[in-house]
Structures are given as structure tokens and as C-alpha cells.
Amino acid sequence: MEKVILDVDTGIDDALAILYAVESGALDILGITAVNGNVPLQNVTKNTLKVLQLAGRQDIKVYPGASEPYLKEAQHVFHIHGKDGIGNALDDMTVEGTEENLFAADFIIESVNKYPGEVTIILVGPLTNLALALKKAPEIAGLIKRIVVMGGAVDCPGNITPAAEFNIHADAEAAKVVFHKGLDITLVGLDVTSQTMMDLSDIETLAGTKYYDFIKQSTDVYRKYGEELYGRNSCALHDPLTVGYVLDESLITTREVYTDVEITGELSYGQTIADFSNRLGQQPNMKVSLEVDSGRFVKHFIDTLGNQKS
């Protein structure tokens, strides 16, 4: 099984991505690192512990990381993810697990040194933890197998500003650090994630299974936000698709291209710019996602979680 670290800002779709990764049975999850993002770090950590408890996987350790971005002030999106970050779907759960004392960036450094060339890092929140790890131990860039990032919008509008996607915009300086360290990067952006919509009919197929109640309740506020945007009661599976790519790369068509992040523009801060026409004359530094087999992915996601009986 592929060794992975999940870096999350849990978040409704982060929670779904964690469950998807756990229930796929195809990933050796070394640990989960938490980062400030959708909600503050303390919410992220608590939500992650709750989701793992729901899955019965308290053996997977949670490592708290950056409580604020690399340089800028924190921003959160409670209006999308609810007051706690997971739609208050697990309010009645008493958390049994505890977070680890090791800082997330140090856990990343420790893990890739322990398994050189073997660890894939799946980042579905701002890239602060990895940027800090690379700052502290730049030599790990040559030890990481690959990173797969939910972030960016290279050929479509943003979702936090007209130009920028939330995860990159939340810490564009950290993203810029990561993008220029010579890593094997795949960017799974809004160009493809916005095509992977889960609606109420998909959720109803999970009735009677382990995660039905949680998915229906947690995504309620998320689907209502989707209804405002798209005119249908549905939500995009941004973070689960990023896990899905690690499970099956054939789901997404990518192109190698030089891509950078804007960090100075007043209107364009956080924009991911892919130089498709090679105007800058730079060598490609990542693969960007352009097309997705959305139907096949959504079916696999639903089937994977639906296989768990209540």
C-alpha cells in the first residue's frame, strides 16, 4: 500500500476525504496533520479526531500544525462548513482520542526521513505545514515521493475571489514556497473538483449504511451553499477527488506546465497561473488537472463509503 500523510483543515469535504482514504483500504495512512484553514486549528484538530472515531480508526494519529498562515492573517469560511466546520453533525460525540505532541511539520520531516522516496503527501488545506517543514529541513524535498494538492484554478474562476481558490488564497506565500522546491506536484484544482457534484439522491443511496447520517447532516449547510451557487442542492467533492487521484490516476487528465502563485496583486492575490503558452520560458514544475471522469469518481466514492454497514 502507498504510504501517505493527509494534511487537512477539516472542513466538511476534508472529513469526507478522510473517510474515503480510510475506507478505500488501499492507503497506509502514516498520520494526519492539521492546519488552520476552513476553521481555526483547534476546530480542525477536534473535527479530525471525531471523524477518525466515527470510522473506528483512532489508531491513526493526529498532529496539530500551523495555527496561522506563513505571513498573512487567518481567514475562515464558517458560512460554508458550519459553526464547527463539519456542519455540527457530531456535536453529541465525546472525543476519546487526543492529539499528538509532535508538531505537524516535524512529523512530516520525521516520516519522509524514515521512508525516503516512499511517502505521498496529500494536502487538502492551505500548504502552511509543508512550507514550514521545507523551511526547517529543505533536504526533505528530495525524499518526498510526491505531493498531491487540492488547490488552485488554472483555467476557471476562483471560489474565494474571482481569481483564486480558497486553499491557495488562504496562504499563497506558503504555496509559492512549496511550488518552487523541485517536488513532484500534482495540482487538483477547481477545474476538475467543481465537476464532481454529490447531490441528495447520491446521499440517499447510502441509507442504512455506517456514514449515511453523518454525510447527510454534515453536508446540509454545504449543499445549501451549493444551491446558492449552482441552483441545485449539491456539493462539490473537492478533497475526496484529491484522494481519488492518489487511488486511481486515470480519473484525471493532467498536463505538465510551469505554474506559479500571485502574491502581490490586489485583485489577483492567490491566483494560480499556469503558463500554457510558455511565455515565461520556464520548465514545467507540476502537473495541473484539466479533465475528470466525474461520474466514475462519484460512483467510486459513494460505493466505497456505502460498503460500510451500520
TrEMBL record:
Alphabetical list of SUPFAM superfamilies matching this protein: Nucleoside hydrolase
Residue ranges of domain Inosine/uridine-preferring nucleoside hydrolase in the record: 4-298
Alphabetized GO MF terms: hydrolase activity
Glycosyltransferase found in the keyword field: no
InterPro entries, sorted: Inosine/uridine_hydrolase_dom, IUNH, Ribo_hydro-like
Gene3D superfamilies: Ribonucleoside hydrolase-like (3.90.245.10)
Signal peptide: none
Keywords: Glycosidase, Hydrolase
PANTHER family with a match to the protein in the record: INOSINE-URIDINE PREFERRING NUCLEOSIDE HYDROLASE (PTHR12304), URIDINE NUCLEOSIDASE (PTHR12304:SF4)
Protein name (Swiss-Prot/TrEMBL): Nucleoside hydrolase
